[in-house]
Amino acid sequence: MKYSKEELMVVTGAREIKDYDKVLVGIGLPMACAILAKLTHAPHSVIFFENGVVDPKSTDYGVGLADLKAWSGASYYTGTLEVMGYMLHGGKFDVGFVGVLEVDMYGNVNSTIVEVNGKPRHFTGSGGGNDIVSLARKIIVITRHEKRKIKEKVFYVTSPGYIGGRDRREVGLRGGDIVVITDMAVLKFNKNKGKMDVVSIHPGIKIEEVINNTGFPLEIPSDVPTTPEPTEHELKVLREKVPATLYSKSL
Amino acid sequence: MTYEVESKLMKAEEAIKKYVDDGSHIAMAGFAITRNSMALAHEIIRQRKRNLKVSMSIGDMALDIMVGSGAVNEVNYGGGSLDRLGPLVCVNKAIVEKKIKANEHSNFSMLMRFLGGALGLTFVPVKSMLYSDMVNDLMRKGEATEIKCPFTNEVYVALKTLNPDVALIHAQAADTDGNIYIYGPKFDIKEIVYASRKVIVSVEEIIPKERALRDLIFIPSYRVDAVVLAPFGAYPTNLYGYYYHDEEHIRSYAGLQCREDAVQKYVEEYITSVNTFEEFLKKTISSDKLLKLITLARRLM
Questions:
Q1: Is B195 on the interface with A (CB under 8 A)?
Q2: How far apart (Å, rounded) are the C-alpha atoms in residues A3 and A39?
Q3: Which residue in the set B96, B127, B155 is minimally distant from A120, CB to CB?
Q4: Extents of the domains making up chain B
Q5: Across the interface, do B108 and A89 touch by the CB < 8 Å criterion?
Q6: Nearest chain B Cα to A108, which residue?
Q7: Between chains, do B34 and A174 touch, taking CB under 8 Å as contact?
Q8: Homologous superfamily (CATH) for A5-246
Q9: Is 90 exceeded by the pLDDT of residue A246?
């Protein structure tokens, strides 16, 4: 079965979620990952928004976390303290998704400010992003694979990665592994190399493409694994049950 | 018969005059394009308050237009946007052009500064923001420092707590005793209400107090200083169960990109050339469109 690169990203993200996981998401592609996981291998996983919306079931997610369409069908409404405090700061989130402007070779994330044509331009800032990256047991970063987005050093550290290339827990962070899912590859931190490294390349993508579109030097062996393709079942559920508006233009 | 709520029921104009001064520290609990304290923000702009300091966990349209109008000179916030309808155009511009002092946080860090203030603590420890550029900046400004747990030696960010002068909240309803009801997600409303010295709540409606409702009270009347009856008081942002946001209006606001003349025109057309929020509603939105927004919000409950 043929599939788009967005569909592959959604499926790859969904597979990072296990049954019974508590998942903190933002709108867009992460939401699609969480819904797909729930409808396939993780029926008991629970979706949360940082503003206190729990287990929403809408089929139209509107324009973001503040859109009433995104909250529709929620099984519980609570506040930020319960989701970001008791749950996240209390170490009870298995997976957290974040969107980024940039991510660097140490897994540092920038969602605050970048230079556009030599001038600083301010964007959203942290929101719950820093909290998620600092505190969730596993962090999924979703981004387009471009040199200007996957860099040697981010312009501004909104959320910390592997400080000095060290284990995050050693330096006092509670956040777990950072997994970067792009439209070309999956990257994770490699302790021996002290930087982010490719763990798999998506089907049909050449090693050179990944190297040429990454802003720091990568050494990718010729026998690098290929990201597993979506199954027919995953694609069928994704196309029939997950609104395409969530992920088709998410990047 | 008189109701208890009447003793603190006032017009937005009176509430802002009474509780907000130039230089006041204000807390708000809107979130991007939902539950913005828009009626109260308009009144602040109409009364040309200046040098305000605003603290909020997630920046929203009310904050953005207050910054755009020149009412604000300092912002404590945890980031923000108009969701995908646009960025916080005026806040982002004012930060880059250094027109306001901006202290950037994470969402939870802001919440903890309010919670600590509510509890009467002078600082709170958090695991958020460690090793970020936000904390470096806050440390330089004396708003944060790194500390170690006296028992385990674990490292934390210590944050100064917040006690704003006045909280501006928009709620669905007050009852006739003056208790406040919040339907849908609660954001950081409780922490803000208990951290702030005075509390102004604008509400969509006033409902009869019934015994059966006491389990649903979110803010008890004794914590509220002013109740302002402001139907559609979050418009053009949305309010759970009451009305959907006006996408067209918010998009066109974001489209101004906070160009100085364009924002001035917006403020004049929609805020300072009218006397009340009701007048703004009348000139801005047709009853047909309003009905559509209401119907959609009901359907999404």
A1: no
A2: 19
A3: B96
A4: 4-106+163-204+223-299, 123-160
A5: yes
A6: B132
A7: no
A8: Glutaconate Coenzyme A-transferase (3.40.1080.10)
A9: no
CA–CA dist A188, A86 (Å, integer) = 28
Tokens encoding A148: 């200007």
Q: Do A81 and B85 touch (CB under 8 A)?
A: no
**Which chain A residue is nearest to residue B157, measuring alpha carbons?**
A172
The token duo for A196 is: 């982010």
Cβ–Cβ of A124/B79 closer than 8 Å? yes
Report the DSSP pairing between strands A119-122 and A138-142: unpaired
B274 SS3 class: coil
Is B147 within 8 Å of B156 (Cβ atoms)?
yes
Which residues, at least 6 apart from A132, have a Cβ–Cβ distance to it below 8 Å? A24, A88, A93, A96, A97, A98, A139, A159, A175
Please state which CATH number belongs to domain B4-106+163-204+223-299: 3.40.1080.10
Give the gap in angstroms from C-alpha B3 to the nearest C-alpha of chain A: 30
Q: In terms of Cα–Cα distance, which of A204, A245, A246 is closest to A227?
A: A204
Residues 6+ apart with CB under 8 A from B269: none
Averaged pLDDT score across all residues of chain B: 97
CB-closest option in A27, A71, A80 to B107: A80
Q: For residue B152, what is the nearest residue in chain A, using CA coordinates?
A: A172
Contact by Cβ (8 Å): A53, B185:
yes
Active site residue A82: no
pLDDT score, position A251: 54
pTM (two decimals): 0.97
Q: What is the pLDDT of residue B220?
A: 98
The string of pLDDT tens digits covering residues A157-204 is: 999 999 988 889 999 999 999 999 999 999 999 988 989 999 999 999
Residue B155: burial class (beta carbons within 10 Å; 0-12, 13-18, 19+): middle
Write down the pLDDT at residue A249.
Answer: 67
- What is the three-state SS of B42-82? HHHHHCCCCCEEEEECCEEHHHHHHHHCCCEEEEEECCEEE
Average pLDDT over residues B81-101: 96
| CA B239 – CA B298 distance, rounded (Å) | 10
Residue B79 at interface with chain A, using a CB cutoff of 8 Å: yes
Of A50, A102, A208, A229, the catalytic one is A50
A31-90: pLDDT as tens digits:
999 999 999 999 999 999 999 999 998 777 788 999 999 999 999 999 999 999 999 999
